[in-house]
Amino acid sequence: MMDPDFRSELVDEVVRRVTGRSAPLFEPDIQDHWEALDRSVRGRRILVVGGAGSIGSHTLLQLLRWDPASLHICDLAENNLVELLRTIRSRSAVTATDLQILPVDFGSPVMQRYLGGQPPFDLVLNFAALKHVRSERDPVSLLQMLDTNLVKADRFLGWLRQHGHGRDGVFFVSSDKAANPASLMGASKRMMELMLFWHGLPQARGRTLADPLAAAGAPLPKVNTARFANVAFSDGSLPFGFLQRLAKGQPLSGPADVRRFFLSLEESGQLCALALLLAPAQAIAIPVLDPDSDLVTFKDIAEALLEAAGYRPLHCASEEQARAAMPGADGTWPCFFTESDTMGEKLFEEFVADGEQARGFGLRSLGLIPFDGACPPRLAESFATIQDWLEDPELPLTKPVMVDLIRSVVPTLQHLDSPQSLDRRM
Predict the structure, then answer these.
(1) pLDDT surpassing 70 at residue 106
(2) Residue 328 DSSP symbol
(3) Which of 96, 109, 110, 283 sits a CA distance of 20 to 30 A from 344?
(4) SS3 210
(5) Do 169 and 276 touch, CB atoms closer than 8 A?
(6) φ, ψ for residue 215 (rounded to 5)?
């Protein structure tokens, strides 16, 4: 098993190599706006949902820099919650902060009860999501994605409004894949953005999208989101998989032609903190990165990782050849990289969709895409239909019908099915 200290040093070195940054991208903006950030957090009550994941945990570690009064962290990953708590307690005493962890599903009746019994949280962040393109492989997995990314999120926002939470800001994390989506996952994130903004509009008063009879309160005063670059070595990511393959003595595999922007784990938390605390309401925050110089391939990351770990890549012509070449000889490590042909994969990353306009708002590292105030007419109808699918197991459910529903709200969806899926790859 790879030594944890070496693994951490290895990740830091690879991120420096592939991003070309020796210091966090967003730290200068944090220092420039330290006083404003401090005023926004100090003494506040904060709720973080999905906080035990990579991005959520690094965001709350940023927020702790400004001493909130309370920080409550919800996540279904109970073991990760405990480890996060130990990490926080080991870093500092956190004596002034009411710090609590709760293994609670954010769309469940338990969460409804919890929110009803808590004094209002000033700031609420949500990182709970199904975020893998592979989760759109079949109707059941896709329905779970729509339930998590949309229906539960809509219900959760209704409870926040009903009980007066989030008066200083509600932040949901989005994805670069929401811009001109090629995957159903990306389109679900675009629908999530629209749903979030809807909860800040006057017409949202007294109801939610999936359930018009829900007892929701006044619209939320400030909601915003952020579209992300890939977070290098975050849980479940392909670079994280490279680390797992090294630790388990297995070959590395991935697409050779897919290009992505990358942030470090620390940068991911800084982006979310800045978006929550400094970005205006009804806007999408995006990192300022250069497509001509900052886009890199997964192959680049794999080669940088192997070189930093003391190996030379041994490029193989097939998965079978790569497996047969393990263990590598003479300081080599078998790899297999191929042109992308799996469904839902975009060849390059982008943050601004066709028809959108990005602008600055006083930060060097972040831009904004303002919400134009118009929600698609079929947004509420789509949520009601998904709710029907969830409640009535006798309703017929096919993937083409689900794709048509999503495209009725996100007409820019460019979804093409492929016989190849990520589940058939190493």
Answers:
(1) yes
(2) P
(3) 283
(4) coil
(5) yes
(6) -90, 65
The CA-atom distances, in angstroms, between 38 and each of 255, 277, 371 are: 42, 10, 27
Cis ω before 287 (30° cut-off from 0) = no
Instruction: List the beta bridge partners of residue 366.
Output: 287
pLDDT higher than threshold 90 for residue 4:
no
Which whole-number Å values give the CA distances from 346 to 86, 260, 418, in the listed order?
38, 9, 13
Could you tell me the residue ranges of all domains in the chain? 22-230+265-291+372-409
What are the DSSP calls for 78-131, one per residue? HHHHHHHHHHHHHH---TTSEEEEE---TTSHHHHHHHHTSPPPSEEEE-----
Backbone angles phi, psi at 119, to 5 degrees: -60, 155
What integer pLDDT is reported at residue 211 of this predicted model? 86
CB 157 within 8 A of CB 196: yes
Average pLDDT over residues 170-199: 96
Looking at residue 326, what DSSP letter applies?
A: P
pLDDT value, residue 347: 75
Give pLDDT tens digits for 206-249.
Answer: 889 998 878 788 999 999 999 988 898 888 888 899 999 999 99
Sign of the dihedral defined by the CA atoms of residues 54, 58, 63, 67, in that order: positive
pLDDT tens-digit series, residues 314-352: 999 999 999 999 988 889 999 999 987 666 677 788 999
Q: How far apart are CA 207 and CA 213, in angstroms?
A: 6
How far apart are the C-alpha atoms of 33 and 21, rounded to whole Å?
21
Instruction: Tell me the two tokens of residue 394.
Output: 């006798």
E strand or H helix that includes residue 45: strand 45-49
- Total residues found in the chain within this entry: 426
Q: For the chain, give the percent of residues with pLDDT over 70.
A: 94
CATH number for 22-230+265-291+372-409 (one of 3.40.50.720, 3.40.1700.10, 3.50.7.10, 3.20.20.10): it is 3.40.50.720
